[in-house]
Amino acid sequence: MIKVGIPRALLYYQYYPMWKTFFEELGAEVVVSPLTTQAILSSGSSRVVADTCLPVKVFCGHVLALIGECDYIFIPAICSVKTKIYNCSKFLGLPDMTKAVIPESPPIFDIDIDINKGKRELYRAIYKLGRRFTWNPFKVRQAGIAAWQAHLKYRQLMSIHGLTPPQAIERISNKSEAKPEIPPSSPTQTQAAIAVVGHPYLLYDEHINHRLIHRLEKAHYKVLMPEMLTAEELKLATTRLVGRSYWTYEEEVVGAGGHYLESGVGGVIGIMAFGCGPDSLMMDMVHRRAARLRTTAFMSLTLEEHTAEAGVVTRLEAFLDMIQRRKRSQVEVCV
Amino acid sequence: MEAYLGIDVGSVTTKFAVLNESDELVTHVYLPTEGKPIDMVQQGLKQIKQQLPKGVDIRGVATTGSARYLAGVIMGADLVKNEITSHAVGALRYFPEGQTIIEIGGQDSKIIIIRDGIVTDFGMNTVCAAGTGSFLDHQALRLNMSIKEFSQRALDSTTPVRIAGRCTVFAESDMIHKQQMGHRIEDILYGLCQALVRNYLNNVGLGKDIQSPIIFQGGVAFNQGIVKAIQEELGSEVIVPPHHEVMGAIGAALLVHEEMAHSHEGSKFKGFGISEIKYHTSSFECQACPSLCEIAQLSLNGQVLARWGGRCDLWERSPTS
Description:
The complex is a heterodimer. By secondary structure, chain A is of the alpha/beta class. Helices cover about 50% and strands about 15% of the residues of chain A. Chain A is built from 14 helices and ten strands. In chain A, helix 1 runs parallel beside helix 8, helix 2 (about 40-45) packs across helix 3 and helix 12 (about 250-260) packs parallel to helix 13 (about 275-295). Chain B folds into three domains: about 1-85 and about 250-275, ATPase, nucleotide binding domain (Nucleotidyltransferase, domain 5); about 95-240, ATPase, nucleotide binding domain (Nucleotidyltransferase, domain 5); about 280-315, no CATH class. The interface of A and B includes residues 288 and 313 of A.
């Protein structure tokens, strides 16, 4: 059986169930790299071209971790997922860059996803990928449909049932899917809700974000994520903030940030990666909105390769203090 | 007399402040950390004890600054608070009408935006420490002058030179270049002050709504050149409060006073005797998972008091095992 490796980085968090279903439907076995560790990050940063961003370094580390574990590595070049919306150049060139910096990597299955070229090109790209496994186009078509179904279900688990991507992935892979129940909200969540917005590869990689979500939950805050919003809500909020989005994956930053700022949560934390151009532009939009609204506390955190967690911890503590003291003063004013 | 002790263990200096029950500053101590936070906490404590009048009852202890957890364990702190909140609370005690706090310390710089006495926004330098106290110290050392002389001579500048302050490495090579071209040292020093202030405002102050009254505190506020450069750049008066260098410690003491007023328990303070105890610190690499965390531990007579530095709670949960 062919073993296809998928690096647990970048778009893994967005599309893993879809990719896994597609390959398994075509008779392959899917292997995922382990959770990010310091060793993975260090090995990745030692390979990349100069001046790249943290998420790409993490990605290269995960590719290195898959060497010897699989026959092929799946790295799509996702150029656009909506018409006239563009992706960061690092996504566009991901398979080529990987080949260049990790020559010893197993052969790469790459596929160009570019909706700008029309649906026909998309289907052609999918068939091209499927033909690596079978010559029967109907089988590829079937695998494609099953993959899309898996993706919709994954989205639903998150937007309707409030699961995080890792929780949803676990739910899907465990097949214990009689009925997806809402995770019981623990009674300790006594504080206000804090929304954390940003790309899933930053929010759910506990190594690079220094367990930010865990820290918030430990301080008894309910944490809200972009994935818990429906596509419609994200789109509406993006339109209100910037009109038409320009970047792919803009909605999880601008849309989610805008939505939560307007919906009266206790605070919004924006997470971005050091060295990311699109992030710095998108987060600025959210920051400006927060400054104009003045109702909800906002903070942006930039993640980099620092091993010391002090930067994240100090800012987080100060942010939570700010929210609490603000709330307390409002209560005093009312009294 | 009841008193509250605040300790701010920063990267470069360690600060102590003791407040009485009406939150007035009784005494303070300002020491260089010199890379030995534990020794300095002990030494400072000894000095504080000498300076305090007889019969002072410490009713609460708070620690802040980058070594706040370490200092908290040693002292038996009732409150461990981040330096941003501490600085804001300290400054507001003296200037309740303040709207912006600029704080430049040894390794980091912050901006705190305040409206109606409440923190509404803050910023801290991210990946770059350009423009903080340790760089100014380094430059003074390179030019073979004290930081006091640096501050005075910068004020004598007539035509400041332009220096790129984005990065300390570039700033230093710019300074050397200007010096080799024959520019006056005063003009180079003030040019550096201007560059650092520009860098601060473009980096830490980016997108922040800076309104007066502006309070400038932290160790770097001793530097008259920087104070002048900030005033010029912002076109506004800047207030340097008295005891600005220990403001974080004052804030921590205020916070612990507030905390203890709501608490029914007594202080966990271990007493002034701890300045005589020999603490031992060590570290090891955890092998439990591939994360290979560096765990630091503090021990006393072979018994571990605290451990931290892990990505998970494994060591923090069970310090004794």
